[in-house]
Amino acid sequence: MGYVLGISSGLFSVGKDESIYGLWKKGYYSITHGVRFTQIDVERITEFKDPFLKERIEELKRFGVEFGFHGETRATSGAEVIGFDVAIADIYKISHERLLAQIKFAGELGAKYLLFHASESLPFQMLFRDLQPSKLVDFWGRPLRELVESEKFLERFVFESNEKIKEILWGFERAYHISTLDKYKEYKEKLKKELEKAKREYEKETDETRKRVILETIRGLERDLERLDDEIQRLREECLKIIDSYDLHYGPERFAYYVVAKYMQETKDPIWYGIVGKKLSDKELVEKPELWVSAVATKYIWGHINPKLSEYENPKPLLEKHKLYLVWETGFLQTGMEGMMRIATPKELYTLAKHLGTPYAGWCLDMEHILSVCNIDIENEIRKLPRDAGTWLKVVHVAYPSPLHAHMPISLGSEAHEFLYKILYILRQKGFREGWIIYERGDKPAFQTIEVLRRIKEFLEKDVPPEELPPEFYGFKIDEPEVIRQREVILQHAMDPIKGLIAVPEEEHTFLSRTALERGKAEQWKREEMR
Question: Is 3-121+268-473 CATH 3.20.20.150?
C-alpha cells in the first residue's frame, strides 16, 4: 500500500460549514484538496443513521475516494459517553456497546480504519475529587470482587496489607468495617494461641477432673473461633459488597486500578512488562501510581477487545471480516492536566496495539496531542521505541507540531516540514513502511500542507536520510532560474557587512554597471541585471 495521503473532514459543529454537514458530505472534502482519502470525523453516533448515508457513500466510492472514521470523542462532543479505560460498571457496558456499534457501521460502509482516542477519562490523580458509583468491574467487565476472590494474593493485598495500602484501597469508605476486621483477626490469633496452650496442657494433665475442665475450655475456644470466623467472613462480605454497589463515594475507581495493577504484576502480564518494565513493591504501587496507571488503563481496553463474558460481543471477528483497522490515538484533555492522561505516549499506544491479539489493531501518532497533553520530548520518545513499533503504526496525524493544540497547517520548507520528516524517517526505520498520513485540520485552510505531505512521502519512500535531503524536498531545484538569481544576489552582497571598513579603495560597480551608470541607466540596469 505504501503511504496514503489524506485530510480530515473537520467538524460541522466548529464552523457550521454546510459542505461538511453529514458523514457523506464530509467524505468529499479530500478531493477539493487534491487527495483521495478523507478521515471522516464523527461528531455524533447518530450520524450513522442518516437515511441517505449508504447510497451516498457508494457514490463517494465511485469517485475513487477512500475513507476512515475518527470515532466520537469527549473532546468533540463534550460528553463522557466513552471510557474504554474506566472501571465503573455501567460506563464499561455503555462504552463496549458504542465501540461495537461504530465498528459495525464503519465496517459495513467500507472504511479502512476506525480511530478512537485511547483515553479521555478523568486522570487517576484527580479521582479523589469526583463522586462515583462504587459498582466496579475488572478489565473483562466482571464484578471486581470476582477477581479479588479468584486469587489469594489479591485477598491478602486487599485485606492484609499495611495500613497505608488499606487506607488507599478503602479510603473512599473511611475504613468501613476494616478496623473491626483487623481487631477480630488480632483476637483470633490470640484465641488460637490460647487453644494451642490448652491442648498442650490437656496432653500433659493426668488428673481426670482437671482434664475435663481443660476439655471444656478447649471446646469453648473452638466455638469462639468458629463464631469469630463467621463474623470475619461476614465483615469481609460487607467490605466486598461496597465495591459492588451504587453507593456514591469519592474516586472508588482507584480501588479497581490498584487491584488490577497487583493482578497484572503478579501474573506477569505482558502489557505490564511492556509499559512498566519491572516488578514494583507494594510501597511503590501505592505511592507512585504514575509508574503503572497507563498499564492498567491499557488492560481495560484490552478487555473490551478480548471479552470473556458472553454478554460482551467480541469485536475481533468484525474487524477481520471487514478488514477494518482499529486504531488508538493519544486523546486530549483540558489545559492544566498536561502529563496526567491515563494513556498518552507512543510506547503505551504501541504496547496496546501489539497485544490486542488481532492483525487489525494499530496506533496513531499525533505529535501535536503528544506535545500538548503529554509534556514530553517527542524525538527522544520516538527514538526510544522498540524496533518493531513502526509496524503497528497505521495512522499519522500531521499538523504544525504546536504545544497549544492549534491544528495549524505546515508551510513548505519550514522547520515543521523538516521536523516531521525526521520523526517519520525514524519510524520508517522501526517498520512504518505503509499507512495513512493525514493532515488533521483545524479551522484553517490547508495552504501548502498537502504539497508538504507529497514531498515527505516521495523522499520517505526513497529512504533518504534527513541530513541528505536535496533542495527539491524544500520546494525548489538548484538549477532553477530563480534559485540562480537568488544565489547571485547573495554573492554580490556577501561583503555588505564590512562595507566602509576596508582600507583599500572599494568598487561599487563592475565594468557593465559602471557604463550603465555613466549613461544614466542605473535603474534600468537593476531591472535587467538578473534576467
Answer: yes
Q: Which amino acid is at 4?
A: V
Which stretch of 91-100, 194-203, 297-306, 478-487 has the lowest confidence by average pLDDT? 478-487
Q: What is the pLDDT of residue 178?
A: 73
SS3 annotation, 388-417: CHHHHEEEEEECCCCCCCCCCCCCCCCHHH
Cell numbers of 55, please?
447510497
User: Amino acid identity of 329?
Assistant: E
Per-residue pLDDT of 221-236, as tens digits, reads: 999 999 988 988 888 8
Kindly provide the residue ranges of all beta strands, DSSP E only, lying in 62-119, ordered along the sequence. 66-70, 113-117
- Between 3-12, 369-378, 446-455, 469-478, the lowest mean confidence (pLDDT) is in 369-378
Neighbouring-strand partners of residue 271: none
**Is residue 324 within 8 Å of 106, Cβ to Cβ?**
yes
DSSP single-letter state for residue 137:
B
CA-CA distance, 70 to 246, in Å (whole number)? Answer: 33
What Rg do the C-alpha atoms of the chain give, in angstroms? 33
What's 123's DSSP letter? Answer: P
Confidence of residue 531 (pLDDT cuts 50, 70, 90): low
- For the record, the C-alpha cell of 140 comes out as 473483562
Collect all residues with Cβ–Cβ distance below 8 Å to 387 and sequence separation of at least 6.
Answer: 430, 431
- DSSP calls for 289-302: GGGTHHHHHHHHHH
Domain limits, the chain? 3-121+268-473, 144-253, 481-528
What are φ and ψ of residue 490, in 5° steps?
-60, -45
Cell of 253: 475507581
Summarised one tens digit per residue, pLDDT across range 446-476 is 789 999 999 999 999 999 999 999 989 998 7
